[in-house]
């Protein structure tokens, strides 16, 4: 059964037409003068993406795809359609999210920060409909609260990517983790390949990758530091992705822990404020827990 997202109506959603100071604005930090793939998508890029999506999907008779095409066809800045894979809405949502993440990182200049990727599950081609980003987010929040990351501030995005080699969708979260050391982050690992932890070193670049709505895939395995090229998804997989995602709004792909949205801003939760003020640093806690175990 398809769960329909209600059509956005005025007032505009919290992420639409954001007024963002230049130091937090991806459109300024990754300007149109950069090469495609390095710049933040421009309005011209958005138009080109919409045209490509329409061309790829136009002959599909699947209801959810027809609905998606209608929505993105009627989408504009005044009344955004709110489809996560609408190039225009995705651009606005990413711009708002990244500005909030940049602000969050700046608020904690001395805290430990890491960029973390967590596996949330695999789905064979044709079964993506059983994936639920909200349920996956809820399970991840539980996992964090039961780990040594309990006191961390975590924000980022949930993403699904197609892997041609094993013909599976991989649901995963890309996260900015603030306030705990990598050793504490390791405590949520469930197995090899389940978790990736990177140093936080390039805020605009790394945070812009945390939340994406890609309609491409990388069939060639990455061998060096440079990502392998992005190819358009096979049409059947694109239809599967759009049919699935048309049930959701972009907010369902935003992951927050220890932080919540208040109007157009992300704010730390009260629990988090109280805890971070009272709790010792992560390494001290770790040492103490390790001693208990020994
Ligand atoms: Zn839209």
What is the element layout, followed by pairings?
Elements: H1 26-29, H2 43-57, H3 63-74, H4 87-107, E1 113-124, H5 133-145, E2 153-163, E3 168-178, H6 182-185, E4 195-199, H7 203-208, E5 216-217, E6 231-232, H8 235-245, E7 254-257, E8 259-262, E9 265-268, H9 270-278, H10 282-293
Antiparallel strand pairs: 1-3, 1-4, 2-3, 2-7, 5-6, 8-9
Helix pairs in contact: 3-8
Bound molecules: zinc ion.
The site of zinc ion has 8 residues, from helix 4.
Along the chain, the helix and strand elements come as HHHHEHEEHEHEEHEEEHH
The amount of beta strand, in percent, is 15-25%
Low-confidence stretches: 273-294
Tally the beta strands: 9
Number of helices: 10
Tertiary shape: globular
Q: Residue-averaged pLDDT, rounded?
A: 89
Straight-line N-to-C gap: 51 Å
Explain what this protein looks like in three dimensions:
The protein has one domain (22-217, 233-293). The strands form 3 sheets. A 5-stranded antiparallel β-sheet has the order 4-1-3-2-7, sandwiched between helices. It has a two-stranded antiparallel ribbon with strand order 5-6. A two-stranded antiparallel ribbon has the order 8-9. 36% of the residues lie in helices and 19% in strands. It is of the alpha+beta class and 294 residues long. Helix 3 (63-74) packs across helix 8. Zinc ion is lined by residues 72, 75, 80-81, 83, 86, 88-89. Residues 72, 75, 80-81, 83, 86, 88-89 line the site of zinc ion.
């Amino acid at each position: 059964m398809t769960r329909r997202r209600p059509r956005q109506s005025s007032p505009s959603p919290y992420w639409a037409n954001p007024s963002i100071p230049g130091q937090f604005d991806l459109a300024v930090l990754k300007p149109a003068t950069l090469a495609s793939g390095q710049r933040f998508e421009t309005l011209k890029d958005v138009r080109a993406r919409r045209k490509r999506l329409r061309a790829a999907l136009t002959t599909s008779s699947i209801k959810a795809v027809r609905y998606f095409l209608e929505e993105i066809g009627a989408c504009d800045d005044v009344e955004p359609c709110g489809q996560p894979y609408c190039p225009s809405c995705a651009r606005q949502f990413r711009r708002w999210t990244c500005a909030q993440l940049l602000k969050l990182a700046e608020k904690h200049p001395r805290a430990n920060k890491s960029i973390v990727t967590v596996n949330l599950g695999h789905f064979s081609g044709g079964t993506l409909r059983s994936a639920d980003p909200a349920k996956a987010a809820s399970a991840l929040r539980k996992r964090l609260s039961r780990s040594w990351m309990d006191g961390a501030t975590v924000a980022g995005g949930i993403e699904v990517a197609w892997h041609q080699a094993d013909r599976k969708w991989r649901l995963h979260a890309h996260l900015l983790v603030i306030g705990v050391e990598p050793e504490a982050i390791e405590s949520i690992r469930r197995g090899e390949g389940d978790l990736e932890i990177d140093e936080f070193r390039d805020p605009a670049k790394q945070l812009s990758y945390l939340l994406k709505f890609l309609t491409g895939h990388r069939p060639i395995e990455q061998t060096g530091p440079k990502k392998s090229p992005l190819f358009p998804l096979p049409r059947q997989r694109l239809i599967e992705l759009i049919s699935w995602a048309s049930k959701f709004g972009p907010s369902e792909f935003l992951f927050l822990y220890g932080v919540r949205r208040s109007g157009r801003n992300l704010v730390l939760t009260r629990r988090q404020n109280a805890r971070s003020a009272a709790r010792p640093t992560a390494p001290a806690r770790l040492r103490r827990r390790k001693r208990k175990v020994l």
